[in-house]
Design brief:
The protein is α/β, with parallel strands linked by helices. It contains seven helices and ten strands. The strands form two sheets. A five-stranded parallel beta sheet has the order 3-2-4-1-5, with helices on both faces. It has a five-stranded mixed beta sheet with strand order 6-7-10-8-9, sandwiched between helices.
């Protein structure tokens, strides 16, 4: 039986690797690196450095070009479903061709595989097809949400108050009305924070957390929204991609 390890490797700082992740990397035979190398060469480099430091002798690295998702499609759910199906095709073929019987493979996932990542859903889809057999284990990692709170020296929750983890798409559609719980926003491609009512809202913002390009901004949303949007646009133009998240916090009650 083949074994796959889905390893959370943190938000970008190699020191965020947990001891469990280091041990998992050390027993891997074949690493399947699933990414968009034309956009994120520095992320691929970071993964390779982690593998070089902690990998066992004789391991192999297989780079897989992640299929692009159609972001112009009218139906969001349908586009994601189609993208996951193509990802499943890619992973299934790689496991069958690159991982020998009895071997251990690994997929290195940024942050925590349990938080807004589709790798486990893709592996379940491959297994459901019944053509390629393997077992898999998930190794949790340090999420960007945890790093965001730590960098800003705050907590995600306040006494007797909930926190919501949502997406930029949902924030844009639903807003951040009076009395709403505090919210961590991820996967915000359109800077949705610029379109909500900023009155009584504080923002803790972070981009490229854990890397040398880290950006941190904190303060009243009314004062910081335009500045964050400018920093974000400049960074995205310079690097070609951005990974960011932020915490919106009510200060008016």
């Amino acid at each position: 039986m083949r074994t796959l390890l889905v390893i959370g490797i943190g938000a970008g700082d190699p020191d965020h690797l947990t001891l469990e992740a280091v041990k998992a990397i050390g027993r891997t035979d074949v690493f399947l690196l699933l990414d968009k190398p034309e956009e994120r060469q520095d992320l691929m480099r970071l993964r390779r450095e982690m593998i070089a430091e902690h990998g066992r002798a004789g391991h192999r690295v297989v780079e897989l070009v992640d299929p692009a998702r159609d972001r112009s499609a009218a139906g969001y759910a349908e586009a994601v479903e189609e993208w996951r199906e193509r990802r499943a095709d890619l992973v299934e073929r790689a496991v069958a061709e690159e991982l020998p019987d009895g071997g251990t493979g690994a997929l290195l996932v940024w942050g925590d595989p349990s938080l807004y990542d589709s790798v486990t859903a893709v592996l379940d889809r491959v297994l459901a097809r019944g053509r390629t057999g393997f077992g898999y284990t998930v190794v949790p990692g340090v999420s960007s949400v945890s790093v965001l709170a730590a960098r800003h020296r705050t907590t995600l929750t306040r006494t007797a108050r909930p926190v919501r983890i949502t997406t930029g798409r949902r924030l844009a559609a639903e807003g951040f009305g009076p009395g709403a719980e505090d919210a961590v926003v991820m996967l915000d491609g359109q800077a949705a924070f610029t379109a909500i009512d900023p009155a009584g809202v504080h923002i803790h913002y972070g981009a490229y957390l854990g890397t040398e390009d880290e950006i941190l901004v904190s303060g009243p949303l009314a004062e910081q929204a335009d500045r964050i949007a400018e920093l974000r646009a400049e960074a995205r133009t310079r690097k070609g991609w951005i990974m960011d998240s932020y915490l919106l916090r009510r200060t008016d009650g």
